[in-house]
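Journal club prep, notes for RB
We'll compare a predicted complex against what the paper describes. Inputs for the magnesium ion case:
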Amino acid sequence: MQIQKIKLEHFRNYTNFELEFKKKVLLIKGKNAQGKTNLIEALFALSIGKSFRLKNLSEAIEWEQDYMRINGILSDKTDLELFYSTYPRKQKVSKINKVKKKLNDFVGNFLSVLFTPEDIDLISAAPGLRRRFLDILLSQVSHNYLVNLLTYQKILKQRNKLLKAVLEKKSQENELDFWDMKLAEHGTEVIKERRLFFKTIEEFLKKQYQNISGKKDRLELSYLAKIKNLEKYSAKLISHRKRDILMTETSLGPHRDDFEFILNDKPINSFGSRGEYRSSILALKLSEVNFIESQTGKKPILLLDDVFSELDSERQKYLLEAIQNQQTVITTTDDNVLNSNTENVQVLEV
Ligand SMILES: Nc1ncnc2c1ncn2[C@@H]1O[C@H](COP(=O)(O)OP(=O)(O)OP(=O)(O)O)[C@@H](O)[C@H]1O
Ligand SMILES: [Mg+2]
């Protein structure tokens, strides 16, 4: 699935902008603060319905304006649109072929893998960032995952509210029975799909990493699930209930899951070199492409924001080879990126 055209109206510094994708690779060149990342952000929004650097996409409305529109046409003519307004009323609308859709039906039509210099933090950052990574990736390939995740999050909020009410003696403890059951039901689905992901990515990751490092290294992701035995999910919730009530939060479940990067049986965040961090993230990003393709039969678009400056020449070369048959958008301030390979490349100067 490729994108053929993107149109932006009042999106950040783009008042009115239109671009046709004519070649496999789009290279966006320009000095700092010209709108290179903004364009990547718009493409990512068409894919995920979110920004990767804002909590709320409506903040990307052009200054002094009260609405924005991002519109994309895919190679099969699917027409995707996101519209946000603040005035005369607050609105968030997603449309496919001009028909309003819920965001969970919007996601999954335009598949993408985003790679930014910040991704290297994924290895050592707080667990929330890694969960976000999982959720974004799995939501794209599985509608079932996204629906269960959103339901899980809703129920979790309800349960936490009820925990507080129980603590304040405004509700009875046994009212939790229903929410525990529901939480376990949807949590189980989320965990199952995460398990499947970790199993499927294994081979891709190993191969990508070995190709990058040129050695027999073994890169793995180890799933650190709070609930290990799904049969005992509800029982575990009940056994933690007293504690949960005191803390007024749910201590167990996929919202607390994490995973670890392991290189040759050792956690990278404790023992890895900077170069190994870089190789691991590069391997992960390319494995994401492999994973999406294996699950959907479609190739995602690869969005590379400023990553070439982060990679040494060997890794740059590897990445360039990997994107040969792959729609890719690359931003750079560097004039020399992709000099050798121009026939597949469309250049946009901003
Ligand atoms: N809501 C907005 N309305 C209008 N302009 C905005 C808005 N948000 C950001 N901008 C402009 O966009 C510019 C940043 O664009 P962007 O992050 O895409 O730069 P860039 O080309 O990627 O730069 P760099 O090379 O430094 O990464 C800011 O300088 C700002 O002027
Ligand atoms: Mg930028």
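Talking point for the session: The chain has a mean pLDDT of 95.
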